[in-house]
Amino acid sequence: MTYPGPEGQWQSQQGQPYQPQQGYQPQQPQYGYDPAQSGYYQQPSGAYPVQQPEPPRRSRKGLVIGLVVALVVLLGGGGTWFALSQSGGGADTPREAAMNLATSIGNGDVVGMLSTLAPAEAALFTDPVEEAVAELKRLQILQPNADPKALSGVQIKTENLTFDDAAAQQVNDHLTITKLTGGTITINADLTKVPFAKDFLDATMRGRQEQNQTETIDIAEHVRETGEPIRIATVQVDGSWYPSMLYTIADYGLLEEKKPWPAQGIPANGAASSNDAVKELAQAVLDADIRRVIELLPPDEMAVLHDVGPAILEEAGRAEPIGGKILDLTTTSSSVSGGTRATLASLEVESPDGDRFSIRKDGDCYSATAQGRTERICADQLPALFEQNAGRRGILPPEVVQVVQSLATGVFKQGIGVITTEVEGKHYVSPIRSLTEQGMTVLRSLKPEDIKALMNLAR
After folding, report:
1. What is d(CA 234, CA 237) in angstroms, rounded to the nearest whole number?
2. Most-buried pick from 38, 136, 310, 335 (CB within 10 A)?
3. Which residues cross the membrane (predicted)?
């Protein structure tokens, strides 16, 4: 197994338990990317039958795999905790790393917890935290004094964790899969401890019998049932090692498909500008050119897709192109945390049949032209159009009309945007940052009275 440090000073004895002495409270923000809900796995729900076909209690694996997301911010190779210092660099020693992480854990520091990941990966989740919390406060969903560095609500405690060091899989010079074989993980969730505003908490908790839920997972029992340890991917960046959520998810995806990690990845090949990156990616999607799509993803924060890219290509086979040619695509650029927001200003596409379609943004209105006809629609027209299409006026509740009006106005004014990043002079499209930005666009569009209207409607 690869160890992050000279002379093997981070190594642990095989099978020796690693026993952290305190639980932590990593309440994850409710937006952005959630690896536990990706296409690889689905959280099981409902009761399990008494008798189950082989393998036994297979569905329980999904629950355990979901816990990997929590584990990777706790654990590193060989049973050692990894952490970033507050300055953003890797820890110099295991003790310093454990102390940095323990400080974040004890404070319920969401930003500090997520910062234990590989730097570029951590930034995907930490960059939007401040703005998201500010918007949730403005909408009166969170209390005015809510602090992103001291959120609570989910407590996770690990005990007697053991790794099989001899079974660790060194995939390449920067990726090692560690194997967790023993110990327990206890999760306690209590939404009443999250600093929600009182009105919001009352509305969401109404009618719920249990507000506090606890689940304990015995890792050794899971290993006996499935015949497999829990796999946690660790990556090396600039000489230091970090646990990785994205690589862990990809590793389980390959395992599920019974495919090995590719021997070689797909190199990054960015565009000359932010606008070009968006245009080239859109054309690659129309052409079903998956290789080009992967080339245009950031080589740092999306390194996992470059490494796993050949397996994706093999699985996709010969994808059927959507067809069409982008004749023109223009965006307006604005700086955002971690990158550039490229907002669509105009687009002209030619179909395989030679027909042309174009769309142009003008303030909070959009104009679309096709087959010689131009239609213009503005944000303030959408609620009436929804009601008209529903068959009769007044079919939508006033609360819904109000929220639709706010959303339409906000989205039309802000525009449809994706986030691009620049690495070594080349520009790339960031899928996770773009997804997060869509969520932020919705939050910015809403007003406090919209949230109250929805809560009243729910009553």
Report:
1. 10
2. 136
3. 63-84
Rounded Cα distance between 144 and 134, Å, is 9
Residue 125 belongs to some domain of the structure = yes
Q: Report the SS3 class of residue 234.
A: strand
44 lies in some domain: yes
The answer to the question of residue 328 being in a domain is no
Q: Please tell me the pTM assigned to this model.
A: 0.76
Q: What is the DSSP string of 191-208?
A: GGGS-B-HHHHHHHHTT-
Residues 124 and 32 sit within 8 Å (Cβ to Cβ): yes
Quote the CA–CA distance of 230 and 70 in Å, as a whole number. 12
Domain that holds residue 91: 6-256
Q: How far apart are CA 333 and CA 347, in angstroms?
A: 15
State the Cα–Cα distance between residues 375 and 363, nearest whole angstrom.
Answer: 15
Q: Reduce the DSSP state of residue 142 to 3 states and report it.
A: strand
Quickly tell me which residue has 């943004």 as its tokens. Answer: 361
Which residues neighbour 168 within 8 Å (Cβ) at sequence distance 6 or greater?
1, 2, 77, 78, 176, 177, 178, 179
pLDDT (tens, 9 = 90+) of the chain, 459 residues, equals 333 333 333 333 334 443 333 333 333 333 333 433 333 333 333 333 444 444 444 444 444 344 444 444 333 332 222 223 333 444 443 223 323 433 444 444 455 566 677 889 888 988 888 889 999 999 999 999 988 776 667 777 777 778 888 888 989 988 988 888 888 877 777 777 788 888 888 887 765 656 677 888 898 998 999 899 988 888 888 888 788 889 989 999 999 899 999 999 999 999 999 999 999 999 999 999 999 999 999 999 999 999 999 999 998 887 888 889 999 999 999 999 899 999 999 999 999 999 999 999 998 899 999 988 999 999 888 777 776 765 455 677 878 888 888 888 899 999 999 999 999 999 999 999 999 999 999 999 999 999 998 888 776
CB atoms within 10 A of CB 75: 25
Give CA angle at 446 (442, 448), nearest 5°: 145
Burial of 72 (0-12, 13-18, 19+ CB in 10 A): buried
Residue 156 lies in a domain: yes
